[in-house]
Amino acid sequence: MEPQVRTLVDIADTPAALAGQADIVLERARWAAEVFRRFDQKLTMSIVDAVAKVAHENAGRYADWAVEETGFGVAAHKKIKNELTAHPLVDFYRDQDFVTPRIDESRKMVEIPRPAGVILALTPSTNPIATINYKILIALMTRNAIVISPHPAARECSVDAAHLLSKVAQEAGAPDGVIQIIEHPTIPLVEEFMRSKKTSVTLATGGNAMVRSAYSSSNPAIGVGPGNAPVLVDDTADIDKAAKRIIESKSFDNSALCTNESVLIALESIDKRLCQALRQNGAYICDADDVERLRRYLFHDRGFNVETVGRDAVWIAKECGIRVPENIKVLVAPIGQIGVEEPLSREKLCPVLAYHVVRTRSQAISQARAVLRIAGAGHSAAIHTSDETAAMEFAGAVEVYRVVVNAPCTQGAAGFATALAPTFTVGTGYFGRSSIGENIGPQHLVHWTRLAYNSSPDEPFGSYHGVSVNLAGPLPTAPADGVPGSSRSTLRPSSSSAPTEGSTDPSREELRKLIAEELRFILRH
Amino acid sequence: MSEAKLDFLDRSRAFWNPGKTQDWQDMGIDLVIDRREGYYLYDMDGHRLIDLHLNGGTYNLGHRNPELVQALKTGSERFDMGNHHFPALARTALAEALAACAPSPDMRYTAYGSGGGEAIDIALKTARHATQKRKIVSIIKAYHGHTGLAVKTGDDRFSKLFLSEDTEGEFIQVPFNDLNAMEDALRGRDVAAVIMETIPATYGFPMPHEGYLPGVKQLCERYDALYIADEVQTGLMRCGEIWACTKYGIEPDIMVTGKGIGGGIYPIACVLISERCGGWLKEDGFGHISTGGGAELGCIVAMKVLEMVQRPEVRTMVRYISDYMRAGLDQIMAAYPDFFIGIRQHGVVMGLEFNHEQGAKPVMKHLYDNGVWAIFSSLDPRVLQFKPGLLMTQADCEEVIRRVEIAVGLARDEVMGASHHTYRKSA
Ligand SMILES: Cc1ncc(COP(=O)(O)O)c(C=O)c1O
């Protein structure tokens, strides 16, 4: 009979067990971070590049896996996202160095980068692999250890991807434990991780509850709120291009990105033309009955129907009994009001676009502000216009930190169709009850120790070129004495100043033993 | 020292153990451990110590590890010590968990003691039964405990005191790392077993030379003796694998684990026995009886210990801790080359060697004054036992190194005189 390892007394759900589990993972990460911070830029980037390469190569495989496991999104689009968060992400930051101290002669300052330490990274089910790639790479660029807490719905592909990247990182010389993943995340367990003193910062992307929880954990957190992007199509816009971009954006990965357009606000004067153009690009414009079906199907008492996240338009239409042609990409739902009484003005992580017509620009702005009052504060908005005044007025009024102009919002706000930083964590700043308002990047995972000289001209600045901090690299491996293949431990010869008495001199003792052994050998043979 | 402590020490002398109580005072160690948590001990006067003694690995996972305390608490809602005569859920479950991670595939049974010594006695009795021979070979200065048979395998200081030394010539001792002496002892084919601590702890962790332990195992096979591995101190991941003997390629016939297996909260010790050595368990299963041996609550704790030490994170931590400590100690050794002359190391089993026959004692004393508790090797006081826990934090390791550097400097001045001081800045 084979022995079985059984649990007689199960304590897995007790606070002690949860805390213990979190602690050991985080302490391993702390050790890894402590060694990682001794690495120089060259070694650091060679690890980053090795990981990016494998992330890139596996983009398609994990895209398929994520779609299969979660049931949502478009594999081809996920593949693009997974790729964008590999090489292009690294290349975007290639010229920035988060490792080497900077010398600023004019301000008489030296700035030494200090990694955060241990990053706890929450990753969503909507963009599981892209977010993992992105968070791991920005952590590695800044010599941080990272512990990933995957969304349970995307657990398997996430665990596999994190293990793969961890292995690659280690093979490229990263310290053991630099990348870890919580294999069986539960809310109480993740909360233990968030509240542990060993977590330096929580990088929270995902549900609002988790983000708020990260902020209440008493640890530093970079959490981002939900999106609910209004998109304004102005009467000066190139209507065809606008429609094309909006459909492209809404159908990208079936709107699983939080930067997707939620409510399209159109000026009355272009309403007809825009609807026509939207239709031409694959939209189905719902009638009042369809809208009511959508409303009831997408929102129930508990909120948004998560079943629909990342589903395609035809699937959704079928589910709620709207008959549409098979080639439809986006369902456009005209709504007469924006606000609490209209659920369709809330965030919709699916290719359903609310459509609201306004008479004037100022009404457009107040309606856009209303959209963001429901949700999405601090996140994203878009405008299609050729009038700079309209763009400025809009951007200065809506409470978001990025307004994408004449581009698909999904891609544009995340930095993939604009010059914004490529990201899967869109900082929602103070409007969105978050600490950072820009697209999160490696710069947010490192702080700088500033060596600041007396500014008086009497006190000259030192010469810091060629002076470095301790970048000794990995720890040397300690010997395991006597184990075949392990180096011997160092034995220093004793100094003559030592008050040795006879047999306490180890070298003499050794010698005597050797001679005795030799004698024995001779006598024997 | 507080009045309260003075008074307590008087009571300790009066009611517990006058000799032991006084010896520590004479060595300048006035430690009375009160609170304890993680790798910290707090003296009854409040002095905090980082524990690098861990009672030989008993506190591998820290003092009062919360998960172990929880396992004990939850366990006690259903179990107690149990009835040692009957098949018992927890005892069998632990035996299976041990069999699943045993150092040899044909290890099957587990017999239980309430402590290491008893388990060693069981191992020796098992070997005698299996081979129908009496002689036991151990290492000079070995330490396997103080029970009836175990004490005879060790230094006679502890057996003679009680008129319990071997008078029948059944217990033979040979020098460590000497295969020729081992062969001489085994050649007569009248030896039941060689009992071997994988790295002799109490002797200051002299390290087995490459090939020594496998050589001993081969000799055992050649001369029909059994190989008993005492993994009481070296086991449970301290050397980076669950059992240190496997690092040396040894598959023992019988293995003993103790100390840390009880997590420091419920004493228990286990003897793993291969199928071919377990005959007595069939012939007369009541052959060894121990009311406290394998108490079921202890089994519950031990199962948790086994699960915890086998977590992949622990393996990494042990590597980090041993590499980090080694790097720090190497620097200190370079700063005091005339005094601190060697490091014996395998994983977090370490011995620091000082150039004086009692050299580890002043180091221990100065470490004590500087907030670190590490004990000298009683059978080789040149060597300080340096035994960090499996879960030590980087911060605590850094604290330890910082304090060791100070203490070694002070001890060196005390032993060798400050005038010869050739302090070199550490690299
Ligand atoms: C290697 C070894 N074996 C056996 C024992 C005996 O264990 P116990 O003290 O639990 O009887 C000890 C105790 O120090 C030991 O170090």
What is the CATH homology-level superfamily of the largest domain in chain B? Type I PLP-dependent aspartate aminotransferase-like (Major domain)
Number of strands of chain B: 15
Per DSSP, what share of the residues of chain B sits in E-state strands of 2 or more residues? 15-25%
The end-to-end span of chain A amounts to: 49 Å
Strand proportion of chain A: 15-25%
Q: Helical element count of chain A? A: 17
pLDDT < 50 runs, ≥5 residues of chain B: 420-427
Number of structurally distinct domains of chain B = 2
* Largest protein interface, residues of each chain: A-B, 54 and 75 residues
CATH H level, superfamily name of the largest domain in chain A:
Aldehyde Dehydrogenase, Chain A, domain 1
CATH class of the largest domain in chain B: Alpha Beta
Mean pLDDT of chain A: 91
The main sheet of chain B orders its strands as: 4-10-9-8-7-5-6
Helix amount of chain B: 25-40%
Helical proportion of chain A, percent range:
25-40%
Q: Architecture of the largest domain in chain B, according to CATH? A: 3-Layer(aba) Sandwich
Overall body shape of chain A: globular
| Assembly level | heterodimer
Query: What structural category arises from helix and sheet content of chain A?
Result: alpha/beta
Unreliable sequence segments of chain A: 488-506, 521-525
Structural class of chain B: alpha/beta
Quick rundown:
Chain A has helices at residues 15-36, 41-57, 59-70, 75-84, 87-92, 128-141, 155-171, 187-195, 208-215, 239-251, 271-280, 288-298, 313-319, 361-374, 388-397, 409-413, 506-524, and strands at 102-104, 109-115, 118-123, 145-150, 179-181, 201-204, 221-223, 229-233, 261-267, 283-285, 299-300, 303-304, 330-334, 352-358, 378-384, 400-405, 446-452.
